[in-house]
Write a structure and sequence with these properties.
The structure is a homodimer.
Chain A: H1 4-10, H2 24-43, E1 47-48, E2 54-56, H3 58-64, E3 74-76, E4 83-86, H4 91-101, E5 109-118, E6 130-139, H5 144-161, E7 169-175, H6 176-185, H7 193-202, H8 207-216, H9 221-229, H10 241-255, E8 262-264, E9 278-284, E10 289-295, H11 299-302, E11 310-316, H12 317-326, H13 333-340, E12 350-354, H14 364-373, E13 375-376, E14 393-395, E15 400-402, H15 410-419, E16 424-428, E17 433-438, E18 443-449, H16 453-459
Chain lengths: 461, 461
């Protein structure tokens, strides 16, 4: 007991509350998660960016108001005038960076970032003051729902890569406009829609409180419950265009082979005010959300750029690590070292374009999704193969990109394939066959079955 | 001109002064440098760690005094009592982490860290407010000079890997005790030795000022200049044990095949007060130091650990990137993507031990150094092969570790090789031959020439 004074003087020699020391073993586990993020983002055609660890404080208050300051670590340089804040999230930096170069950037721009972020809140399970987060965003481009599907697909792909399946985690989809349309139809003034969304947001945690607050807004909780229970019955919503948009995103995910991973969940509202339409969370049983995001079509304009549709999500390392460790899905020892020694797919394996003839266009998205997913060997789990084991795939996941251009000028599309240094270009000729061009060797094979592309490309890897 | 007010309101949407936005191309170049650091550290047997991005402010003032506060970004959480600072360097975090677990850690402990650091100083060429830095440290262990050579070797290996050669950069070595011994011998009171070191530290930048300040200390600048000019003439220094230690480190670097890369430079003093002996810098013509470090034998005790010898260095990304870009040594396009797709050598390729018989012990360090360096193909530069090109090596650099134990119990040493998941174990039998054990297959070859180990091991990679 009389040692207390000495302990007091040593107190500062600990890591700050809510932060972590990464000794070699903890560091390897952190890298396993970071590598999974990076590998999936790369093979889905996202390009890595990063910004400063701290930004001008204004960057956060302009979007979220002064209220956010209590959740931030903010500071000034000794003798300096500017006020800075440690970044609590990546979206404002991304919007600032996009706005600054909007005119030179591709349509769409697909960016990802793996970095550390900071929140000055109380540490608890799944929440720390310094944490790592993966962000994926699709900005601009002609087809917004296409971007929605691309980001949701990337989030699900990490779950699948890490050995989690749809019985454990799934992507819950909604569109905020479904809820606000229903609210309007039920006599709620538009000025109270944000309040309505906040009530919906807490419903899962505290249904009784939610119901009481709905009644106070003159909403029948039973009718609201019925809406949530049967979201596809669009008769409940007079302005059903927003619901159609959720259903369309859901359908496109099915087309990309992700049917079992996605569910429509009208109870989802998301806390942040900047979402303008589709929102989603990847949710695991008994845990916080692993990832969350949505569409924020007004933000880039707010940061000085042109009006630009955009969509993205963030996934944190802490909840994901808990999920993997609880289920024995984190490799150890030699297996962990080998998993971390895998090469990163920075160079695109394949670039997919369509001739636009005979149903070719409809094959682009499903083929790209299939190439990125790889083909798993029959019964790999039953044979005791681990998610990181060499025996998992008969055709490994590939880095696949595609043209987003409407042109059918194949020469121009081949130029784009070359410009991103893709190894192969797939030119889809009709609903079943393609021409496969080896861009390194200048050779091409015609009439290749779409189902064989993955094996052909991976053999040359 | 009348648009100025609007510009004013947009001013905050820029990255803070002295920080960087990494768009995809800048990010790839950053990764090229970070990957080079990580690859070299791993194959030299260092294990990666990291700490929090901010620490308690005390962690920096306890070592460097209150004066350092003006060079730091410090802050409090709104409503919180603790004062934090963005980390300006890694050594205090490392000392804190080592001190907390000193008893469980291996002897020696070899750690590296690749992270971002922050200084609140004026940005200029080669210096930013947020930068990336690679740290390598060897802590504890029975042979301090061995640790010196390990860290210097790692710093040089990155230069060599990136295609720089000894005509461009070299490691300048000194031992602070050489200078303080000479000062004592010339009548300078020990209380003024730190002042003397600070004068020496600025000599290269401003020789006239240095000479004037030496005269003010009653030192003959000519005699001091003569000492610097012929450092190996130990007759100038009555207490020559420190000089012998520099000469010994220099000799060991020669033994590891790094003769041309190392030079003794008594004018080197290093700014930080915590160095206790050997100090070094990697210096390129016309640039700031690329890397700097030294021995800090008192620091871990200061942070609550046992008395522990330690040695390490930091290398920043900004000066190294300038060096590579100025010399056309930064790959672009497809070559950059391919360079970044190389696998990381996390699993040790080989673990080297000695039987202790017939001159075997003397072969351990040179063999390990040779395996880590690889064997370059004849005339690769003349043939136009780039540093990152596949044709550079006939035997690629390998991840090689060795036993630091004094025991000759081969069974125990083999256990250590297995515990770190090495693929092969080399048991050196005499000055020329070894037994090569394939630990995955349980096979062994006897009488293998030491010169053949690299090719044999890399063939199985």
């Amino acid at each position: 007991m009389n040692q207390k004074p000495e302990k007091q003087t040593k107190r500062s020699f600990q890591s700050p509350k809510g932060t972590r020391d990464f000794y070699p073993q903890e560091m390897l586990r952190r890298r396993y998660i970071v590598d999974a993020w990076r590998r999936v983002a790369l093979r889905h055609g996202f390009e890595e960016i990063d910004g400063p660890t701290f930004e001008h404080l204004d960057l956060y208050t302009v979007k979220s108001g002064e209220g956010i300051i209590s959740e931030l670590f903010s500071f000034q340089r000794a003798g300096g005038e500017d006020v800075y804040a440690l970044r609590p999230e990546f979206t404002p930096t991304l919007a600032r960076m996009y706005a600054a170069r909007a005119r030179q950037l591709p349509q769409p721009t697909k960016w990802f970032c793996v970095s550390n972020f900071f929140r000055a809140e109380r540490p608890q399970r799944g929440r720390l003051r310094e944490f790592f987060q993966w962000n994926c965003d699709v900005i601009a481009g002609e087809d917004a729902e296409d971007g929605d599907v691309e980001v949701i697909h990337a989030a699900i792909a990490v779950m699948s890569d890490c050995g989690l399946d749809a019985s454990v985690v799934s992507a819950h989809l909604n569109d905020r406009r479904v809820l606000t349309a229903w609210a309007a139809q039920n006599g709620i003034d538009p000025s109270r829609h944000d309040e309505f969304l906040r009530i919906v947001d807490v419903r899962a945690k505290n249904p009784a409180e939610c119901d009481a607050r709905l009644r106070a807004m003159s909403i029948d909780p039973g009718a609201f419950g019925a809406l949530l229970a049967s979201p596809t019955d669009s008769a409940d919503i007079s302005d059903s265009s927003s619901l159609r948009s959720v259903l369309a995103a859901r359908r496109r995910l099915s087309g990309a082979g992700l049917d079992e991973w996605a569910t429509i969940d009208l109870s989802l509202a998301r806390g942040l005010a900047y979402y303008t339409g589709m929102v989603f969370e990847v949710i695991a049983q008994g845990e916080r959300a692993v990832a969350g995001g949505g569409r924020y079509d007004n933000l880039i304009e707010l940061f000085g750029g042109p009006p630009t549709p955009a969509c993205g999500f963030g996934m944190g390392d802490v909840v994901l690590a808990n999920l993997l460790e609880d289920r024995g899905l984190m490799p150890e020892g030699r297996e962990l070292l080998e998993a971390l020694s895998r090469p990163m797919p920075l160079r695109p394996d394949v670039f997919v374009v369509s001739t636009g003839k005979d149903g070719a266009d409809e094959q682009v998205v499903p083929l790209v999704a299939r190439l990125r997913r790889g083909e798993e060997a029959e019964g790999w789990r039953e044979r005791g193969v681990r998610p990181w084991g060499a025996g998992r795939y008969s055709v490994p996941p590939l880095h696949a990109r595609r043209s987003y251009k409407q042109t059918k000028n194949i020469g121009k599309l081949l130029g784009d394939a070359g410009a991103c240094h893709a190894r192969f270009c797939v030119i889809i000729e009709n609903s079943e066959r393609c021409t496969l061009k080896d861009l390194d060797r200048g050779e091409q094979s015609e009439g290749v079955a779409l189902a064989e592309v993955g094996a052909r490309v991976s053999a040359a890897r």
